[in-house]
Specification:
28 strands; 615 residues
């Protein structure tokens, strides 16, 4: 740690025109833990570097005058003047006390910064955009770029600079005092969402969860994306090397370091509309975790029993027949839950290449036993927090958009949660081939709920999702919609037609919305009835067809798709002549032909069976 010698800096400034004068303005203290010093917290502008600060007297006059006129140099002088007035001989300022040409020195400073702010006798917080003589007590349009408050409160690094120091004095742009942390604590809590106890006494003053601390950083910004992670290391008491250029991976590394040091389940309690790995993309994912609370084992197990067993009445008539067979089985299951919660395995996370090993109570989804709802040992306001998990390789990834309804006892399982998975790695790109549909005057009118250009439709198997493509022949008022979707990891295809186009020819978007709603409500049924890619009698089914007759016409819409597990994601939409005997869409079956190498896919209509041969 290098500190500015307050007297040397001010004496040099007084004798600045004496070219022969030599001043050693930056020095290493004999013992940084016992040295009394002041520290500055501020927003960066045009600053003075370490190299410029120590070489100021060796510069030619024009260059020296340019440095001294800088906004950053004036902050150094003002800070030293305040420190001298308050009786401090040393000052630390991040702009000029770190030789950023040295990667090792920069890394040491970033890893030590929280401790340096914590050990300072006083912190001067300079709010350069506050022009009034009092601290702002309500949001103001002049701070529109920073949520209505001074910009200091939305920057990433200033979060630890607010929490760590024991004493903070705030100054406006003219360096006039406008309040201190202790007096302003209630107002600071409103601005930052940080509990008053933490503002007054630091992190040791109140038991807070990992997710809660992350929520304080959720709305903050940094110039470098990596600094969103690096600026939080001190708050969590972890260290890691600086790798500028790694981008968002820095925040993933930070979470892994926290997991190695803590067994706080709330680190998994973030929210996102996108499926993916167990780790959050940024602190912003923790925005809604302001009231997240970590539970002790006894409270957790009692809450678990109340929410997942008592409320579902899984114990049956145990109050009447507590000694009966069902009652004894129920008591054994409760005892098993309590033993698991108090086990070392439950309190330990392990990180390796396979993922993050956790031991959690889970409840399977009714329609897909391989999908789980895992129950975390933390709560926000009322209920226990949960995460929905879907199989992904040898582990599990988070999924979204699932419907949950289960009445089974939670069961503890050892799971490997993916920690390195980019959501893009799980996406499936479907190639849409609908050229032949235009031969009969049917054109693609649009998609719902999301638009896409070209012939590529992107879906994720980790979440329930659906896209509907509408085709129409305006001349004869006939149209249909093709749906591609996933439900609990199972892909599915469906096709529906417009029931009464001759009565009310509404815009295609209205029909798309109706078709989407119908398919979305029935997505579980569509997924369950989806054909299984299998071998029958030595015959492999490479393609499948779904068929829907368009009412009051000679046409039928056909959708043909291949083996998705073999990365064949081509979907063909076609129009074919139909005798008009069916009113579809109907179920289909697959019939193998044992006498040849061909498979016959059978589409069952009302009064007619049409056989389509697929090689």
């Amino acid at each position: 740690m290098k500190l500015l010698d307050v007297k040397a800096v001010l004496d040099r400034e007084k004798d600045i025109q004496e070219a022969e004068s030599e001043y050693e303005v930056l020095k290493m203290p004999a013992d940084e833990d016992t040295t009394r010093y002041a520290i500055l917290s501020h927003r960066w502008g045009v600053e003075v570097t370490y190299e410029e600060m120590i070489g100021l007297m060796k510069m030619e006059r024009r260059k020296r005058d340019e440095v001294r006129q800088r906004y950053g140099y004036q902050k150094i002088i003002k800070t030293c003047e305040l420190a001298m007035k308050d009786g401090y001989e040393w000052v630390w300022i991040d702009t000029c006390c770190i030789d950023k040409r040295s990667s090792s020195e920069l890394s040491e400073a970033i890893n030590s910064m929280y401790r340096w702010y914590q050990n300072a006798q006083i912190c001067y917080a300079y709010l350069n955009d506050v022009d009034s003589s009092v601290f702002p007590t309500e949001q103001n349009a002049k701070f529109s770029k920073s949520n209505g408050w001074p910009e200091w409160f939305v920057r990433g690094w200033t979060l630890q600079e607010l929490i760590a120091p024991k004493r903070i004095e705030f100054f406006n742009q003219d360096w006039a005092p406008i309040g201190n942390k202790r007096y302003l604590a209630p107002m600071l809590g409103v601005i930052t969402r940080i509990p008053r106890e933490v503002l007054m006494g630091g992190l040791a003053a109140k038991r807070v969860s990992v997710a809660q601390v992350m929520s304080w950083a959720a709305g903050r910004k940094t110039t470098r994306v990596e600094d969103r992670a690096y600026s939080l290391m001190g708050l969590f008491g972890v260290n890691m090397p600086m790798l500028y250029g790694e981008g968002k991976k820095a925040f993933r590394r930070l979470q892994l370091e926290i997991i190695r040091e803590s067994s706080d389940h709330s680190i998994f309690a973030w929210s996102s509309s996108q499926p993916g790995g167990a780790l959050a993309e940024s602190p912003g994912d923790f925005w809604y975790c302001r009231n997240m609370r970590k539970l002790e084992p006894d409270e957790y197990v009692e809450t678990l029993i109340k929410e997942y067993i008592d409320q579902s009445n899984l114990g049956g008539q145990r109050r009447v027949d507590i000694l009966g067979r069902k009652g004894r089985a129920h008591q054994r299951k409760l005892a098993t839950l309590r033993d698991a919660v108090n086990s070392q395995q439950f309190r330990t996370f392990t990180v390796n290449n396979a993922g993050i090993q956790v031991f959690l109570p889970v409840v399977p989804f009714p329609n897909s036993p391989s999908h789980f709802r895992a129950i975390l040992s933390c709560t926000s306001d009322v209920n226990l927090q949960t995460i929905d998990l879907a199989p992904s390789g040898s582990g599990f990834s988070r999924t979204t958009g699932t419907m949950y309804s289960s009445s089974t006892y939670p069961e503890f399982k050892t799971l490997y949660l993916t920690h390195h998975q980019d959501a893009n790695e799980t996406l499936r790109e479907f190639t849409l081939d609908d050229v032949n549909a235009s031969y009969y005057g049917f054109t693609r009118h649009g998609t719902h709920p999301h638009e896409f250009s070209g012939d590529i439709v992107t879906l994720s198997p980790l979440t329930d999702n659906l896209v509907v493509i509408v085709y129409a022949n305006n001349d004869c008022r006939s149209r249909f919609a093709v749906g591609l979707g996933y439900h609990l990891g199972q892909g599915w295809v469906h096709v529906v037609y417009d029931d009464h186009p001759e009565v009310n020819w509404t815009p295609w978007s209205d029909f798309a919305h109706t078709a989407y709603s119908r398919m979305w409500e029935a997505r579980a049924k569509h997924a369950q009835s989806f054909p299984k890619h299998k071998y029958d009698y030595g015959c492999r089914h490479d393609h499948f067809i779904k068929h829907a007759h368009l009412p009051r016409s000679i046409w039928a819409a056909r959708v043909i798709w291949g083996r998705w597990e073999m990365d064949n994601f081509k979907v063909v939409v076609d129009i074919d002549q139909c005798p008009g005997c069916c009113d579809g869409p109907h179920a289909w079956t697959v019939t193998p032909v044992s006498t040849s190498s061909l498979c016959v896919c059978v589409c069952v209509c009302a009064d007619l069976t049409i056989y389509v041969t697929v090689v």
